[in-house]
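Today's session is about reading a structure prediction critically. Students often jump straight to the picture, but the first step is always the sequence itself: look for stretches that repeat, for charged clusters, for runs of hydrophobic residues. Only then move on to the predicted structure, which in these notes is written as discrete structure tokens rather than atom positions. Here is the chain we will use throughout the hour.
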Amino acid sequence: MATILLIAEEAILLEQLNTALRQLGHTVTLATEEQMGWMLFEATHPSITILSLDLAETAGISLLWKIRATDPEAVVIGLTGAETDEQYRAARELGASVVLQKPFMPADLDQALRQVSPPADSSGPSGYPMASVLVVDDEVPVLQFLRKALEGAGYQVWEALSGNEGLRQVCAQPIDVVITDILMSDMDGLEMIGVLHRNFPNIRIIAISGGSRYLDYCSVAKMLGAHETLNKPFELQQLLDAVARQVGEKS
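Below is the predicted structure for this chain, in token form.
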């Protein structure tokens, strides 16, 4: 079980998460503000830090930056209650391993913990090894929706808000399938597909696009190395079927 540092100002949140984590067998240390959280991080070197990003003013984001600057390998699960995507994006850019939107269900936290510390014999519902899927999209609601759907289907899911972040994720852990939007800021999906095809030939690529009256982006994606494409809007089952096919191609 993990040693977890839990940093949050909300007493009810602290109590609920502390109880849930201890029931799962984890060792938990609590902090209620930024300075105490930083001191305990330095003193205890937790295997996982769960950090509420809603600390006073921007203290949560500041503490995340400090943790990642000190230990780039630190595992941090961020919790955000912000109504806009700004806090979520900031946390992802600073390297938070997972970001959960409040309110969340206990199953969401359990899945996040499994994602950042998967057991050596992790497997999906069928008993086969759990496939790892990276979703790349610059729209936060789309990321969150696809992540929940894929996790519900038994996959281990990673997220990225841009092509550059997607490539960093690919370099950081084994990825079986990449699902990427095509039109994004920063590095777009087409450029990332080309890089993946040249440098990570074992990764299966699914490209999704809203289409254009001027250019067939899906056809271009296939030319660059995408193994499968989907035009928006598509049914969720179509995507799950595509992922299952690509996982099957790897095995």
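Discussion point for the tutorial: The chain has two domains: 3-116, 132-250.
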